[in-house]
Amino acid sequence: MITGLLMEFELLWEAMHVLANLAGITIRKADLGDRRDWVRIEKFVGDCPAAQPFHRPNWTRGVERGTGQQGHYLLAEDGSGETVGILPLSRISSPFFGTALVSTGFGVGGGILAATESVVEAISSAAWDLAQSERCSAIELRGGPIPEGWRREEGTYAGFRRDLPCGEGAILKSIPRKQRAEVRRALGLGLDVTIGRSDDLLDHHYRVYSESVRNLGTPVFPRSLFEAMAHEWRDQADVLVVLAGGKPVAAVLSLYHKNVVHPYWGGGTLAARSLRANDLMYYALMRHASERGCTRFDFGRSKIGTGAFAFKKNWGFVPEPLVYARRGASRDMNPLSPKHRARVALWRRLPLRIANRLGPMIARGLG
Questions:
Q1: In this structure, what DSSP letter does residue 236 have?
Q2: Interatomic CA distance for residues 173 and 169, integer angstroms
Q3: CATH of 2-153, one of 3.40.630.30, 3.40.50.720, 3.30.420.10, 2.60.260.20
Q4: Using CA atoms, how far apart are residues 294 and 287, in angstroms rounded to an integer?
Q5: Is 300 helix (H, G, I), strand (E, B) or coil?
Q6: Which of 26, 160, 226, 322 could be 312's S-S partner, Cβ–Cβ 3.0 to 4.6 Å?
Q7: E strand or H helix that includes residue 263
Q8: How many angstroms separate the CA atoms of 33 and 344, rounded?
Q9: From CA 276, how far away is CA 186, in angstroms rounded?
Q10: Among 222, 217, 225, 278, CA closest to 251
Q11: Among 215, 199, 318, residue whose Cα is nearest residue 268
Q12: 119, 85 Cβ separation under 8 angstroms
């Protein structure tokens, strides 16, 4: 039976290559353990204005190492062997939500990067063939062009990005008046800010982040995911922690890509709100990112109509509707849906120790 499955897999990929070659394009799976493929991908991503951190190979490898969910990386090459398109994928398997190929796993962006429409169609066709061979019921593309015949999904999420001024005074002035007043109050509360990549800071981050998502009714990702990302991104990642009396009350793990800072996994404890620790955290990160040479601040995505959505608007960010694409079955993982409302309410009441033990087993399948 195993031999038969392997033969079926090879036939699918053979057919895929024939179809791609009709347009002068070859699709293959990159080997992220091969330095040459890694460099080719990094160059393509570096040259493409639409590329996001989720397109980089260290994101795919960080997800695989941190969650155990298998990564795939498709390369489209023209007749001369030049890279003309890429698609990072993670095979996300969950006993609760099924199995899907996701671009990108645990990311909020990604999707196909391609030079032409013909490349988009070739690489999306190859991805669907790969999904069939991997026994996935669907493919999800988070951003990028919508391939022909794929289902367009929008109206759930918005992204928040804007320019980041240079210098402390300019940054403070760029924040709307009411939010600026909150930042000024936070600056006067005697809170401390520390930034780095040490194990202690990663520990502080996980303690804060796990409590934050438990309070929202969401299972926490495995700690190994954050550790893997910090390892893979090296000096292009760091942790910022806000402390009150030496105790961490807010923390964020950020990535740096093309002079853009991405505060990706952040949150605060119950005490953070009265201490205005989240306000100080993002202001301090803006200052730190500016000092690193960043000129853009990407506040990530939020579900439309949520508190996080309103919080980001208060900082002067204009929401940009996000458009995703899907082929195959749908996975309902929206915690705001009626199907999950009771589960969210129950999760919020779990003791943190139990939530942190059970959460990673569930959350590793939410990518």
A1: G
A2: 6
A3: 3.40.630.30
A4: 10
A5: strand
A6: 160
A7: strand 260-268
A8: 39
A9: 5
A10: 278
A11: 215
A12: yes
Q: Which residue has the tokens 């000024």?
A: 184
Q: What share of the chain is helix, strand, coil (3-state, %, to 5)?
A: 45, 25, 30
Separation between Cα atoms, residue 111 and residue 140, nearest integer Å: 8
Helix axis angle, 177-187 relative to 277-291, nearest 10°? 90
Domain regions of the chain by residue span = 2-153, 159-322
Q: What is the β-pairing status of strands 260-268 and 296-303?
A: parallel
Q: Name the pTM for this structure.
A: 0.90
- As given in the structure block, the two tokens for residue 198 are 């040490």
Q: What is the pLDDT of residues 259-291, one digit of tens each?
A: 999 999 999 999 999 999 999 999 999 999 999
The one-letter amino acid code at 142 reads R
Which strands sit side by side in the sheet containing 260-268, from one edge to the other?
192-196, 237-244, 247-257, 260-268, 296-303, 157-163, 319-321
Q: Is the pLDDT of residue 231 over 60?
A: yes
Distance from C-alpha of 335 to C-alpha of 219, rounded to nearest angstrom: 11
Tokens (6 digits) for 137: 């019921």
2-153 and 159-322, same CATH topology: yes
Amino acid of residue 272: A
pLDDT reported for residue 337 = 65
Tell me the CATH architecture of domain 159-322. 3-Layer(aba) Sandwich (3.40)
